[in-house]
Amino acid sequence: xxxxxxxxxxxxxxxxxxxxxxxxxxxxxxxxxxxxxxxxxxxxxxxxxxxxxxxxxxxxxxxxxxxxxxxxxxxxxxxxxxxxxxxxxxxxxxxxxxxxxxxxxxxxxxxxxxxxxxxxxx
Amino acid sequence: xxxxxxxxxxxxxxxxxxxxxxxxxxxxxxxxxxxxxxxxxxxxxxxxxxxxxxxxxxxxxxxxxxxxxxxxxxxxxxxxxxxxxxxxxxxxxxxxxxxxxxxxxxxxxxxxxxxxxxxxxxxxxxxxxxxxxxxxxxxxxxxxxxxxxxxxxxxxxxxxxxxxxxxxxxxxxxxxxxxxxxxxxxxxxxxxxxxxxxxxxxxxxxxxxxxxxxxxxxxxxxxxxxxxxxxxxxxxxxxxxxxxxxxxxxxxxxxxxxxxxxxxxxxxxxxxxxxxxxxxxxxxxxxxxxxxxxxxxxxxx
Lengths: 122, 301
Known about the structure:
- The complex is a heterodimer of chains A (about 120) and B (about 300).
- By secondary structure, chain A is of the alpha/beta class.
- Chain A has one domain (about 1-100): Dinitrogenase iron-molybdenum cofactor biosynthesis domain (Nucleotidyltransferase, domain 5), CATH 3.30.420.130.
- Chain A has helices at about 50-60, 75-80, 95-100, and strands at about 1-5, 25-30, 35-40, 65, 85.
- In chain A, a hairpin with a 5-residue loop joins strand 2 (about 25-30) and strand 3 (about 35-40).
- The mean pLDDT of chain A is about 90.
- Chain B folds into two domains: about 5-60 and about 125-300, Rossmann fold; about 70-115, Alpha-Beta Plaits (2-Layer Sandwich), CATH 3.30.70.20.
- Chain B has eleven helices and eleven strands.
- In chain B, strand 9, helix 7 (about 195-210) and strand 10 form a beta-alpha-beta unit.
- In chain B, helix 1 crosses helix 11 (about 270-300) and helix 5 packs parallel to helix 6.
- The longest helix of chain B has 30 residues, at about 270-300.
- Chain B starts with a strand and ends with a helix.
- The relative contact order of chain B is 0.20.
- Chains A and B meet through helix 1 and helix 2 of A and loops of B.
């Protein structure tokens, strides 16, 4: 399964970025083989609508699930339109997050866990 | 000051006394027989009405156009999402999503849609209230809670600037888009600050912005006597006139917190605002003289 983890760095040992729309990078990883690619988040410094455009980028990259710290309402609505599963409240390193996900330690978020603009300047 | 002159009362830092200066100035200018209009452009947190206590006679809704998609006609081509610069509309797996709060009403999606599946929907962003506070014409913008089209509403409020009077604009704090919208195209700016490190930091930002807009301005220091001398030093170095100093007086704070005007309850401050009024009259004369010269120069063949 192809999953996307928001990350502050470009490796599996990087910390999970707590922001979705304004995350530094998206690590797109095959949960079985751990093959991964790094997608720089072009929306990180957007003036507005970062959540929506970041979600679009993740959807276009073919992600079926997203693991992140916080996700706002616009990004959540966009991901949900493409039936991408969203898991919020994730912390630690990217590889730890993947392990937790594979072991069924993460439950799907019922909705956004923060308001719009939450990740600005963080 | 019988004819057209528009003053913006702005500040970098919030809570420095913009509304105090704007409302008291409006009162004193009006009491001296000038025709005065007060515009509350601090539409996210308007509070001029608390002090001026206008009799509101008319209220007008302000709405903007946002897209509404007809799923029957939509083919899911995604062109609307490609043209939108604000991610306010996008096509995900042939479903079009709209985010009204991100829309800037450019109409691009409506025009580019090949099947005319997108229609205009009206979205209320706020209200404008009109009234009279004694002889002062009051116009106040009020943004709808949860909405973010602040500059749009401010521009609508400013459409009601009258041509034959002194217009005083209460500007929102900060240096972002709403401030630019409120200050733009005014004749003169009063920057209200306080002698604290925060006051100075934000004053510098405001000065940068006003200089960028190429508008004449002066500084008003509120709560003079607290903090330090840094504002004074900064203004001297930058060659900025400090035109009024309101002292740090507990009675001013007491009047403010009970919704009273300084010039109504503390008569010794009437002079401060009268002098400010006279100063602005002088500024207006100078600006008018410059305009006349410019017109004359234009007419020289």
